[in-house]
């Protein structure tokens, strides 16, 4: 029996186990997960843990391979592997608890930030939601994929507390304090007793998340959002050098974003065709494109939080620090900035769940792959990474579309490579560029924080020293011996 035939038999077995209503084979649904020529054979959508366990048993018995996603309802999570069965948890979308007094939520994997936002507004709950820019992304997936946001709670991995997963054999496991039957602190104390294992279930194919607890930020008494623009390409270093001590001492506590002029232009709906010339845009053209929108070559977004009497003191300190950069503009009122960009950027730092005017891949395509290196919050290192990445992008005929989010002591960089899904050559070129970026960045000492669908093996090869890959293989064999779960 071929692999495809085995997969089709497994899909049929799952359908028999949980019903035809929980399986989708329509071309429209499958197209949401197609990427670079890879497409699934079908989508399994369990409604609850009982159906999920039955689906796993049926697929495992038939020798199938499932690729879990937390919420593929909006096509946000791509498969990356060909001829697999997608296990989409979007129907498991109950908000199980939002505790305002202790500032946490407990959700199933299908719950989106938009859904959680609607819930807290309906209930009048005074908590902020931190999201990474897309309201329709899964709250659980932001933890599973370790994606950052923009408030002081931007480190979604750190803010997770309490996890339930279903193993390949259908067994449910609660981690941390949730492992104790009468626990009162499942969403309050992360570690419980004994080895802490929550991290094993992020960026892995070891199990399926069924419940995720997340800490939420109480609305602060006062806050001040701001933006800093600089006119020159090499002043990325100046921004990071000023920001570093402010982050280290928790003066600027949020996930501070630094967007390139073209990245911000793309958020406003601008496209590559709006600008003259062929080939990657020069530094002067990028600067000019930013200036036409009231932006700098680099644009930093930060916020201060605290008591009404303290925030003005911090603001004077921060304003003075960034004003020391030649040509910098420190903006607190949005004057001169497109109001749509200003509202979205400032809102993202204050718990507002909204989406930008446009998605960055529309700059020169309709989908994208990205490189996601990490650097210190240090000017020299960030500039070294940028120049290396810019040159590789240009070699592959891509503009540099980048955003950096500084969280604690590191900066997560997202370098976006758009492509057209209808053009095989376009997708192949984007993946070739991503692979080149990943290899060169690793050689320069910059590892990846996230692997795009289909790029996990490429990224994994850069982390294979000191036995880490062997350890991962041993855990996988112990938890999922038949390799029921696939990860792109």
UniProtKB/TrEMBL annotation:
Key word Oxidoreductase present: yes
Enzyme class: oxidoreductase
Record carries keyword Phosphoprotein: no
Taxonomic superkingdom: Bacteria
InterPro entries associated with the record: Cytok_DH_C_sf (IPR016170), FAD-bd_PCMH (IPR016166), FAD-bd_PCMH-like_sf (IPR036318), FAD-bd_PCMH_sub2 (IPR016169), FAD-linked_Oxase-like_C (IPR016164), Oxid_FAD_bind_N (IPR006094)
Gene Ontology biological-process annotations: lactate catabolic process
Keywords for the protein's UniProt record, in alphabetical order: FAD, Flavoprotein, Oxidoreductase
FAD-binding PCMH-type domain mapped to chain residues: 36-211
GO terms, molecular function: 4-cresol dehydrogenase (hydroxylating) activity; D-lactate dehydrogenase (cytochrome) activity; D-lactate dehydrogenase (NAD+) activity; FAD binding
EC numbers on record: 1.17.9.1
Protein name per UniProt: 4-cresol dehydrogenase (Hydroxylating)
Species the sequence originates in: Sphingobium scionense
